[in-house]
Amino acid sequence: MIFREEIMGELPSELIDRLDVGVGICSVDSLLFLGANPTLTGWLEVGVGGKLLTDCLNDKECARVKKAVSKQRKFRFKKAILIRSRQETVDFTVSVIDDENPYVLILGVINNSDAEVLKMIAIYDDLTKKNNELLLLEKEKSEAANKAKSAFIASVSHELRTPMNAIMGFTGVLKKRITDQENMNLMTYITESSQTLLGLIDNLLEFSKTESGHLDTNVQTLPLAKVIKSHVVKYAQLAQEKDIEFIYTKESLPKMIEADASMLNQIISSTLDNAVKFTNSGKVELTVQPDPTQDDMLLFTIADSGVGVEECYMESLFLPFTQEDSKSNREYDGAGLSLSISKRYIECMNGRIWCDSVKGMGATFCFTLPFDGEKA
């Protein structure tokens, strides 16, 4: 057979037939297929008899092949070149079955002893399969790296929490023994810094849980008014200390809400904390009401007149370790985890969270959660 004798030489025919790439030989003059291995004939869905090389190409690639053949009859291909290569060789992206299935076509030639081109070799390789295999491999590597990272963060965070609790405990003891104001101010600074660091450690622990998929949710029916009241009292006081207004508005609230108590408290605390922290003048307003767009869903809205968020950062706002890289925002503490954690919590409880903001004009964070029972 011409195909095996002239193309494959001494290679066993069984090996050629078992290749998972399509290999064929065609005439240089007519581009008619003269032979092919089973892989290629399978892709062509019929035998190669009477089929042209150009029948396997889309219109654009067909024109490229014809142009290359007519322009340079003695071209040679010594190695396979990847798609979009800038090197001065010819490669073709083709669709053997349909335009949605990409294959790479590598052309070569058979020359006689006088370097005259006798026939062309066409090698088709399925890029979809190879790309999917590479993507799967990269996905597995990424998942393994994330698990290792989460395990490391959890381990380090646990180790840091123990001495941090000791520092805070002994600081409290010392504060009771100090009588002069100067030392009392220093101890207060140590206490506040310790609380900030402990909050960061707790966030890292929670983040490692969400990343590893070990987030345990204990959804139960909670008294809504009682949950909100504690946050209103706390953040109204913090707002007053910054000389900004704190407004709480409620509209036809249900008596109960379906949520994990710990998660709900952290979500409300995180969003209000950000609002107060990033607002230096004006107001912070918390509004809780039934969601007008969804039945049995509660809508929380936290609006502030603070620094706002640049539009280019909006898409990454809820990603872990994300902070706006601007001078006005770098002055505030934080690791950029609270919103990411809040989003995971809310989604675990069948809600969603989003933000609207204009830089310099404040931000409005909204999130929804399901509620249960009649309205108060």
Distance between the termini: 88 Å
Number of helices: 10
Number of strands: 12
Please give the largest β-sheet. 7 strands, mixed
CATH class of the largest domain: Alpha Beta
Rg on CA atoms, Å? 34 Å
User: CATH homologous superfamily of the largest domain?
Assistant: Histidine kinase-like ATPase, C-terminal domain
| Order of H and E elements | HHEEHHEEEHHEHEEHEEHHEE
Give unreliable regions as ranges: 1-11, 72-98
Q: Kindly report the CATH topology of the largest domain.
A: Heat Shock Protein 90
When the domains are counted, the total is 3
Indicate the percent of residues in helices.
Answer: 40-55%
- If classified by CATH, what would the architecture of the largest domain be? 2-Layer Sandwich
Taken as a percent bin, the fraction of beta residues is 15-25%
Mean pLDDT: 75
Structural class category: alpha+beta
Shape designation: elongated
Report on this structure.
- The protein is an alpha+beta fold and 376 residues long.
- The protein folds into three domains: 1-111, Beta-Lactamase; 123-212, Helix Hairpins (Orthogonal Bundle), CATH 1.10.287; 219-370, Heat Shock Protein 90 (2-Layer Sandwich), CATH 3.30.565.
- Helix content is 44%, strand content 23%.
- It has ten helices and twelve strands.
- Strands 6, 7, 8, 9, 10, 11 and 12 form a seven-stranded mixed β-sheet that branches.
- A hairpin with an 8-residue loop joins strand 3 and strand 4.
- The protein is elongated and about 105 Å long.
- The termini are far apart.
- Residues 1-11 and 72-98 have low confidence and may be disordered.
